[in-house]
Every structure is written in C-alpha cells, then in structure tokens.
Amino acid sequence: MTRKQRRLTLIGFAGGVLAIALGLVLYAMNDTIVFFNSPADIQAKNVQPGTRLRLGGLVKEGSIQRGDDQQITFEVMDAQSEIRVHYKGLLPDLFREGQGVVAEGVLESATSFRADSVLAKHDENYMPREVADTLKKQGHWQGEADAAPKTQ
Question: What's 39-137's CATH class?
Fold first, then answer.
C-alpha cells in the first residue's frame, strides 16, 4: 500500500466513523429536536412529569393571575387543550392575553408547567413560525388570512 492509499483509507475511515456518530446522535435526539410543544402535543405524546421542554401556544383570555413576589400563573392553550403555567419573574413587556407565547421549563403534571423563561412576540406582526403553523393547522389562527408570519 502506498503512502497516498494509506492516507485516503484513513480519511475515508475517519469520515465513516464521523457519519455514523452523527447519525446516532440525531437518532437519539429525534423526539427532542423541537422548538416547542403545544398543549395537545404534550397530552398526545403522554410526556412524563419532570421532562424539560418548551411549551407554545396562545395565552388564554382571563387566565392571568398575579401573586406576591412576582408569581404569575396563566394558561397556554391551543384548539384542543390547555396547560396552566407557573412563572416567577418579570414577563416581557408585550406579554398579554390572546397572544402567542413560548415558555421554557419543566412539566409538573399533564396540566401544570413550571416555566423558567417566557418569550412573547416582539411586535404586532411577529409570532414564531412554528407556533403560527400549528395554530393554522388547528384552525385557531388570529392573524390576517393572507399574511405570513415574519421572522428575523
């Protein structure tokens, strides 16, 4: 075997090992590579309590309750179900009822979620594309009929 053949064999072997490793990593993360889960997704997948994830949907009208020491409770809903979210901290300025939201945290039970952070849309034309697409599929979209959500 010449020097050039050994080098090409080594490069090919290393590339093959790298491809297999990447494939295994992607296969293992298949269910967790998601920008958010809607309340219906969480109940359909029977997600176990204690699982860390992102919850996305609309803030239910009349569900925001403010408590002492920056404790806030609200419900995130989609067309099929809703989940109560508990959050301690300051909410984004544009957070309000009837608007899109993505909360990151831990599922406490099938109907309760403890959020570490809450993301809200940044102007009247923006909603994360995944949230908008899910709401459109469920027939719960509140935006203009022809307008596509903007991303930045």
Answer: mainly beta
